[in-house]
Structure formats: structure tokens, C-alpha cells
Design brief:
Layout (H helix, E strand, L loop, with lengths): L2 E9 L3 H12 L4 E5 L2 E6 L2 E5 L2 H8 L1 E7 L2 H10 L3 E9 L2 E7 L5 E6 L5
Parallel strand pairs: 1-4, 5-8
Antiparallel strand pairs: 1-5, 2-3, 3-4, 6-7, 7-8
Length: 117
């Protein structure tokens, strides 16, 4: 399994007021989308999320998003290494993802830009 990069997940109260700071910090424009009632802005290595508290509560459990070459292959490595696959792999508009709990209890999202939903 090759890790291509990581994205830091940040839950914010007001996405509109937070985005300009992160755009200045990273020197990049936000890519915005909605997912499950949550407004999201991807800015550089940051994934800003804002929405209903009950939705954010679940998202806060995920420590980071890790980009990999192939989520399917990653699922096999994680499973063989003792991780528990909680969700996926599933297709999304941006690729595929899965959520896994490592043996130490840490939860991570793994994503690729493979087959789209």
C-alpha cells in the first residue's frame, strides 16, 4: 500500500468565514461540495467541514484522510494487518473511499481517485 498524501480534517462553525484564512494560508482556491448535509471545502491539505452537529460528531471521529493509489488493495492490507473496515470501499463522485479502525482504535478515511460512483 502506497500512501500518496494526507488531508487534515477540520470541523468549523462557519465555512464562509473560515475558507479565506485557509486559502491565504495554503495559497490555493477552495474546492467546494456537499456531502450528507455537510458543506465541505477542500483547501490545500485541509478539508473544512460545516453542518449539523450530529453529522459533524461522526466526522470528528476520523483522524485524517489518507490518499492511496487503490482503495481495494488498501482494504486487503488493512484487513491483513488487523484493522477493521467500518465502511466501504464505496464509490463517490470523487473516487472511492473506505473508513477503517486501526488496532489501536484510531479511525482513518482512505481515498483514491479510481472508479467514480
Amino acid at each position: 500500500m502506497e500512501i500518496l498524501g494526507t488531508t487534515l480534517r477540520v470541523c468549523v462553525t462557519d465555512l464562509e468565514s473560515s475558507v479565506p484564512f485557509y486559502e491565504r494560508l495554503t495559497g490555493s482556491q477552495a474546492l467546494r461540495f456537499e456531502r450528507g448535509g455537510v458543506s465541505v471545502a477542500a483547501v490545500g491539505c485541509f478539508l473544512l467541514m460545516s453542518g449539523p452537529e450530529e453529522e459533524l460528531e461522526a466526522l470528528r471521529r476520523i483522524a485524517a484522510t489518507i490518499a492511496v493509489k487503490d482503495v481495494g488493495a488498501t482494504a486487503g492490507v488493512l484487513d491483513a494487518s488487523g484493522a477493521k473496515i467500518l465502511v466501504g470501499p464505496v464509490g463517490t463522485p470523487a473516487g472511492r473511499n473506505l473508513i477503517a479502525m486501526h488496532p489501536d482504535g484510531a479511525v482513518f478515511e482512505y481515498v483514491d481517485q479510481g472508479a467514480r460512483a
